[in-house]
Amino acid sequence: MLSTQIIPHPSADPDRRIAVVAGALQTTLEIAGAIAIPAMKMSFGRNEEIFGEEEPADFVYKVTSGVVRTFRILGDGRRQIACFYFAGDLFGLDGGDAHSSSAEAVTDCEIALVRRSQVERAASQNPVVAHALWRLAADGLRRAEEHVMLLGRRSAGERVGAFLLEMAAREQGGEAIDLAMSRTDIADYLGLTIETVSRALSEMERRRMIALPSARHVVLRDRHAFADAA
Amino acid sequence: MLSTQIIPHPSADPDRRIAVVAGALQTTLEIAGAIAIPAMKMSFGRNEEIFGEEEPADFVYKVTSGVVRTFRILGDGRRQIACFYFAGDLFGLDGGDAHSSSAEAVTDCEIALVRRSQVERAASQNPVVAHALWRLAADGLRRAEEHVMLLGRRSAGERVGAFLLEMAAREQGGEAIDLAMSRTDIADYLGLTIETVSRALSEMERRRMIALPSARHVVLRDRHAFADAA
DNA sequence: CGTCTCATTGACCGCGCTCAATCGCTGTGG
DNA sequence: CCACAGCGATTGAGCGCGGTCAATGAGACG
Fold this sequence. Notes:
homodimer; alpha+beta; 5-stranded antiparallel sheet; 4-stranded antiparallel sheet; 8 helices; DNA-binding
């Protein structure tokens, strides 16, 4: 599959490119269970860039393991995280020919990727794939609108509470949440500062709503109290 | 086309249903120029509900004339507007089997609607339609992420400025903007209060960035100043 | 002319940001 | 084994932006 060499992944330095080609066909990328497309596999270290804003959107990505964030930087350095992606999630489907946000690895992670043209070909040949792609984009839209609700009309405490519930739902560990991301990431996702996030968490701990055995480990002690805030 | 009677539009009272059936096939709904599907046409008065949150999403809608808002209400009455739709825009594609937001007419408007199942059938038969639907959802996603940026990381003045630029782009009237929506709508879209929106506009007028011949009519006098804020 | 609705303006207050110090964990070298 | 950075998280003090409450203004309509 020489074409993977002709359009290497943007983040691919020469060494990595060899790894990509060697790794090609090592895995497959499933579109919502509809079809499995032969895919390349790449590894990214913590905070490494997967793609940048305005880069051509030639690939579709799927998280195999680890966590990814997509975000945009405003002129003066303010950062807004649009979404976190966990194992099994597809990303890079944000439409258009160029990415509208950047993507980075929150933790070390494994990413499966296929060229967008291949996905589009599969979709044009198989209506089930096409429908799955539509559904995926629509789900993304729904999540983004949920995010809009969060940012537009909720207090700091409510935002952090909603975030914890979202994380608890994502990594179904029951009441125990292992946060993959730093306070800075959480703040930039919730449109707050790290200090406000930290204060909200401390306040919740004081009220026995959560336990904080360590900074990255949260235990929900009173789910009921969060539901009230929603 | 009796099926339109079997699954009437949710907002259809008996009188309206007759009008709908009478109006069936009066128009067509184009999906991104790809295909024209026979469509029903309905009229909605100012502030009339088009569909409600949690109602089954049986239809796909396209604005023929007028302006539509989609929004969600939080428990305590706070409202967040997700999006405004203008003539030519499709809405109600928010995925899932049930709508995730409500939709209302901002102004009197004409809406073309087709049953979702028809759109899905068209998509399964014609890859171009399927691709257009994907693209539409992806565009919606991009706009929602833009909205997230706005709400997460921008000051009141920046939000109002971005809103004016967005409206100017939507209704290409050059520097003159005819606002279809009230201050309350603007505030609920930007995650602000009407007082703050009003103050921001007055401040811009004082700085000669805009002229405000009337509350609903804005003229951009210094586009450059807005670009700086972005 | 009076009423109703929507927008503007003012006074005040509180939430969340800013700036800054401290804490706590982790890894590294003496 | 302890000392010491180095980094992220927490906590505190003070302030400013935007929210709240309230009064006034400006159009639209009967």
